[in-house]
Design brief:
311 residues, D-amino Acid Aminotransferase, Chain A, domain 1, four-stranded antiparallel beta sheet, 6 helices
Amino acid sequence: MIFTFTFSQDETTDIVMKELDTNDVLRFNIDKPDDFAWDFHNGGFRIADKTCGKEITEKTFTSFYLRKPMYFDLIDVPKHGCVENWRREETDELMRDFFRECQHRGLVTLVRSQDNKYGKLRQLLVAQKFFRVAKWHFFHGELPDELKRGRWVVKSMTQTSIGENKVFFVKEVDPAALDLSYPWFVQERIKGEEEVTVVYVDGKTYAASAPRESFGGEDSRKSLLEHPVAWPRCELTPEEERAIRGFMDETGYRFGRFDFIRKDGELWFLELNPNGQWAWLDEKNEHGLVSMVADAIKAEDREHRARPSLL
């Protein structure tokens, strides 16, 4: 049985579950702890979904599929902490420790925790070997001279909330206006013709694109939330395919979603999200993207089932 670790509003998991045998998957939504019972002990474990009676144990477990465990209902944690935040942190740490143990035993599918060793800084340095990459700065305390010229956009390294229902979106800024008491990540603005996103799954790629003019801003995520646009499938050149595979081979990723901007026919690298949302590109599986991901999950799970029980 596949154990999927996510949250209740993860639509990508909703979609990919349709391609899996749902009777053979236990989906754990971290934001709905009261729906579940669990017990980890020296002889094994049991996790049960109380809403449907389904359960998974060390005897039926075969694979751990990490998705997006997160909370949309954020809480204000007082200065001295609170019980709800303690409950969340305890549950999250237990499940992540379970994930690490499964990874140690070779029972994780598609997404591995070592993928996180390549954050934005490391990604940008490696990407320079394979793609065009705009100039960038991570700075604090003093304004670099280069930022006094040209056009720049400010980004965030994390998805940390900056206020109630507020997240940090990419935006063009005058770096001189930024408060230097905060850390900043800025990149040279790329005036390209279209955004290109590429899902990579075990050597296979699925590419889609949308005109830059359709976003009305620098951050396509905001447009997707407020005014969704179509992302038709597009073709990559053989050179682009080789560059993507080269990047993935060097970093060790087996799965992820690239974000690029195409300018004058060339791909400019923005980032790789090693476990990003992707199902919105082909929600009805008309082009086979959902099947491509689901097939990779099922193939790895079959390999796990062929081994002697490790848990």
